[in-house]
Amino acid sequence: MESSLDLELILVSLVIIAGLIIAIYWFMRRGKEEIPRNKQPLLVDYAKSFFPVLLIVVLLRSFVAEPFRIPSGSMIPTLEIGDFILVKKYAYGIRLPVLHTKIFEVGQPKRGDVVVFRYPPKPKINFIKRLIGLPGDEVVWTADKKLIINGVAASYQPDGNHQTLDRAGRKISVKKLKETLPDAEPHDLILFSSPTRPGKFIVPEGHYFMMGDNRDNSSDGRFWGFVPEANLVGKASLVWMHWNWLEGGDGFQGGRIGVPVN
């Protein structure tokens, strides 16, 4: 979920600029006869018109919920390419926009949550993965593609097949499983027949270990490490629209609207 524009910074900057224009104009006109709105300077008129709208957008986007689009298949079958999701920004605490400093504690991440976070190597890029390991956990990913967390193996139940695309863009059917992590609700994942690289990961304090549900096609904690708590953005809630306009995409899918992210 990469963007070349820092929309958050742009919106906050516009709110500050509009607010300063209004404040300076008020200070300069203090004690003088009020000028009708239609005769005020155009810049001041625009500032007064856009300031409340921009402020509401910033407050909602920063502290309540923010929309994101899924551009890759790393979370298939839970999230499909072209899903537009709503993310609860307050789920793991209230943070200041742009600075990302937490000012209020609200809740703690739980194993199994689908989390949006700022990608540690490039914090301007947002990633979405499933939270597998909590601070202090020992996570083992085995050669036969199973998870063992603090010595307790996750359980796996066959759940049919899932139609998806391979790396060449060809439609294929892959094995779908229902995975149940320790102390978490079951969720779906898919596995290809390709080999994997096993590993053991000790999650540092203040960090989290993330993996994609498309286990064989996900750039996640197995390859680039752990996510600091300060990088958490929010918890994925539901799909509010699906539209994949890319070549070979499935276009608009009304049946995806309102699907909860579990």
User: Which regions contain 5 or more consecutive residues with pLDDT less than 50?
Assistant: none
The tally of beta strands, per DSSP, is: 17
Shape, per Cα inertia axes: elongated
Helix content: 10-25%
Number of structurally distinct domains:
2
| CATH homolog superfamily of the largest domain | Umud Fragment, subunit A
According to CATH, what is the class of the largest domain? Answer: Mainly Beta
Radius of gyration: 23 Å
CATH architecture of the largest domain: Ribbon
Class by helix and strand content? alpha+beta
The CATH topology of the largest domain = Umud Fragment, subunit A
Fill in the keyword field for this structure.
four-stranded antiparallel sheet, 34% strand, Umud Fragment, subunit A, alpha+beta, eight-stranded antiparallel sheet, 2 domains, 262 residues
